[in-house]
Amino acid sequence: MEERLNKFLAKAGVAARRKCDRLIQEGRVMVNGEVVLSPGYRVTEKDRVTVDGKLVECTGKQHVYLQLYKPRGYLTTLSDPLGRKTVADLLRDVPDRVFPVGRLDQDSEGLLLFTNDGQLAYVLAHPCFEVEKKYLVYASGKVTPQELDTLKRGIRFNDQDYRIREGLVIESNASLSLVEVILTEGKKHEVKILFEEIGHSVLRLIRIKMGPVVLDSRLLPGKWRYLTSQEVEALQDLKTSLLRGKTSEKT
Q1: Residue 241 has pLDDT above 70, yes or no
Q2: Among residues 21, 96, 105, 161, which one is catalytic?
Q3: By its UniProt entry, which CDD domains does this protein fall under (predicted)?
Q4: How many other β-carbons are positioned within 10 Å of the β-carbon of residue 244?
């Protein structure tokens, strides 16, 4: 059966759909010995597909889902040409090939999901689906509810729009505030840019929830575990609901 090249790669666990698009457009993917630059190029199981010269096999094996407590100081990538620490260093004992769902900045920490389910990763990470991500923010100074209202209305920075969906001041004094915020995108340094706009530096940033999955409080930084069947089911239900919503918008 024919399918799009980017979908074939995502299904094989190479990366999430958008990352597969980039691999194709960078000329790193070959089909039957020829470089293909179109993510929509149609392939079948009989085609020989390679990425950076390595054969890609879509065996239809079972999908794998896990969560990692990403510590500060690690890059959200599976390899780094400069030799810096990456999240792949923390998953050496995972027997399956998995890739991160979205990203966390190098100096951010907390929940990072991994899978080899390309479609689920695409839905969770693409901003058009507006999947909620919840963060704990340790910020300098006294953050007020009025300032969070400003962030809910949104700001403009370097020709891009930034906003939070929800915000709550948990604790606050003259020198330090603990704030909970919910975002639906994943722009680089998004929370820091937002808080700088209202005059507060982000001292520590922890992602504690993505969609229906909550960071396991028993996980220490750098440790991972497989998702439970209930967590996987909740993610699949969310994916189905969001895809159905997008289909309805088109009709």
Answers
A1: yes
A2: 105
A3: PseudoU_synth_RsuA_like, S4
A4: 10
